[in-house]
Amino acid sequence: MAAHKLLLLPGDGIGVEVLAEVRRILAFIEQKGILSFEIEEDLVGGAAYDAHGVAITDAAMQKAKAADAILFGAVGGPQWDGVPYDVRPEAGLLRLRKELELFANLRPAICYPALADASALKRELVDGLDIVIVRELTGGVYFGEPKEITDLPNGQKRAVDTQVYETYEIERIAKVAFELARVRSNRVTSAEKRNVMKSGLLWNQVVTATHKAGYEDVKLDHMLADALGMQLVRAPKQFDVIVTDNLFGDILSDVASMLTGSLGMLPSASLGAEDPATGKRKALYEPVHGSAPDIAGKGLANPIAMIASLAMALKYSLGKPELANVLDRAISEVLADGLRTGDIWTEGMTKVGTSEMGGAVLKKFETLLSA
Ligand code: NAD
């Protein structure tokens, strides 16, 4: 069995604690002979700055480029607030995204039945919710030039950001969305603002053409991004895969995340282009949450977002979608048993810490696999 190359980047704060739980699951998978791994580990974020004066070293970047999947914890913390801008902890993550060209950000919003009451919406609207937002991550208004604030002769200032997309950028993200839909419920909703933005018009045209050119088996709808935001809180279960640009994706994925309760539950994946020779994509998997300095080092962090990120890696990088489903089911059943970390705890439930929660998921995973 060829070994899968993994790079573990725990980072700072609770990143270190939640990644420790993933390490236990990886060891179990390997010990069971299901997969074999070549695991590398390195520093990123504040930890890398303290050791090397940069947010990620060139050597760690080399390991990242060679990896089949990167599992990333979180970076940042108040102790690095004063460090120079280009070596601040977040610069490590941005360098990874940029140099690996991770243009597709996948954020699932899954509502586990046991947590439906923690949602801001009514139980019947979110119970069983399972959608994915595919956000374009490396283009659009966050990167377009010019991007500046200039002084005007009348003493006022003028700020410009540029929303810019080229055909290839829209085509490749649309393909990711269609391919993802094929292994889910086969529906894609594309969101833009073609009524007021030229980039929205091109987005709509390219998504439509990409659909026609090879994905007509997938059902495609177009929706204006503002209308989609409204539908997301009115009737979220109508969606399967939503594909949208960097700006709208940033906002809509945060809205979607609140449908499901806590930050500690939300995984994500960032994918690059498919290598035509190997069929593999560069990929980084990380929880949506940050390093949570307020609870770091106390063993209180919820490891589920990190474990669910591993499930995404099993599905999209390691060729084990069935195993990923078993891991997701283990999470769901542990929650149904009433185990809760502090962030998702409610009256009557059993409060546990990081390693107890990780251990319970691992135990359930083992039981489900041997059943
Ligand atoms: P955060 O996500 O770290 O924390 C927000 C709140 O949610 C905190 O109260 C925290 O205790 C709680 N929380 C988050 N994850 C949790 C978990 N797994 N279990 C239980 N509770 C959890 O966001 P923040 O406080 O705005 O940022 C803290 C630091 O993290 C900052 O330095 C920020 O820049 C950084 N950050 C990093 C990333 C990343 O690495 N991708 C993302 C966001 C923020």
Automatic annotation (TrEMBL):
<keyword id="KW-0100">Branched-chain amino acid biosynthesis</keyword>
<feature type="binding site">
    <location>
        <begin position="77"/>
        <end position="90"/>
    </location>
    <ligand>
        <name>NAD(+)</name>
    </ligand>
</feature>
<comment type="function">
    <text>Catalyzes the oxidation of 3-carboxy-2-hydroxy-4-methylpentanoate (3-isopropylmalate) to 3-carboxy-4-methyl-2-oxopentanoate. The product decarboxylates to 4-methyl-2 oxopentanoate.</text>
</comment>
<dbReference type="GO" id="GO:0000287">
    <property type="term" value="F:magnesium ion binding"/>
</dbReference>
<keyword id="KW-0460">Magnesium</keyword>
<feature type="binding site">
    <location>
        <begin position="290"/>
        <end position="302"/>
    </location>
    <ligand>
        <name>NAD(+)</name>
    </ligand>
</feature>
<keyword id="KW-0963">Cytoplasm</keyword>
<feature type="binding site">
    <location>
        <position position="254"/>
    </location>
    <ligand>
        <name>Mg(2+)</name>
    </ligand>
</feature>
<feature type="binding site">
    <location>
        <position position="226"/>
    </location>
    <ligand>
        <name>Mg(2+)</name>
    </ligand>
</feature>
<dbReference type="GO" id="GO:0051287">
    <property type="term" value="F:NAD binding"/>
</dbReference>
<comment type="subunit">
    <text>Homodimer.</text>
</comment>
<dbReference type="GO" id="GO:0003862">
    <property type="term" value="F:3-isopropylmalate dehydrogenase activity"/>
</dbReference>
<comment type="similarity">
    <text>Belongs to the isocitrate and isopropylmalate dehydrogenases family. LeuB type 1 subfamily.</text>
</comment>
<keyword id="KW-0560">Oxidoreductase</keyword>
<feature type="site" description="Important for catalysis">
    <location>
        <position position="193"/>
    </location>
</feature>
<keyword id="KW-0432">Leucine biosynthesis</keyword>
<protein>
    <recommendedName>
        <fullName>3-isopropylmalate dehydrogenase</fullName>
        <ecNumber>1.1.1.85</ecNumber>
    </recommendedName>
</protein>
<feature type="binding site">
    <location>
        <position position="226"/>
    </location>
    <ligand>
        <name>substrate</name>
    </ligand>
</feature>
<dbReference type="InterPro" id="IPR024084">
    <property type="entry name" value="IsoPropMal-DH-like_dom"/>
</dbReference>
<feature type="binding site">
    <location>
        <position position="250"/>
    </location>
    <ligand>
        <name>Mg(2+)</name>
    </ligand>
</feature>
<feature type="binding site">
    <location>
        <position position="97"/>
    </location>
    <ligand>
        <name>substrate</name>
    </ligand>
</feature>
<feature type="binding site">
    <location>
        <position position="107"/>
    </location>
    <ligand>
        <name>substrate</name>
    </ligand>
</feature>
<keyword id="KW-0520">NAD</keyword>
<feature type="binding site">
    <location>
        <position position="135"/>
    </location>
    <ligand>
        <name>substrate</name>
    </ligand>
</feature>
<keyword id="KW-0464">Manganese</keyword>
<dbReference type="Pfam" id="PF00180">
    <property type="entry name" value="Iso_dh"/>
</dbReference>
<keyword id="KW-0028">Amino-acid biosynthesis</keyword>
<keyword id="KW-0479">Metal-binding</keyword>
<dbReference type="GO" id="GO:0005829">
    <property type="term" value="C:cytosol"/>
</dbReference>
<dbReference type="InterPro" id="IPR004429">
    <property type="entry name" value="Isopropylmalate_DH"/>
</dbReference>
<dbReference type="GO" id="GO:0009098">
    <property type="term" value="P:L-leucine biosynthetic process"/>
</dbReference>
<dbReference type="InterPro" id="IPR019818">
    <property type="entry name" value="IsoCit/isopropylmalate_DH_CS"/>
</dbReference>
<feature type="site" description="Important for catalysis">
    <location>
        <position position="142"/>
    </location>
</feature>
<feature type="domain" description="Isopropylmalate dehydrogenase-like">
    <location>
        <begin position="5"/>
        <end position="361"/>
    </location>
</feature>
<comment type="pathway">
    <text>Amino-acid biosynthesis; L-leucine biosynthesis; L-leucine from 3-methyl-2-oxobutanoate: step 3/4.</text>
</comment>
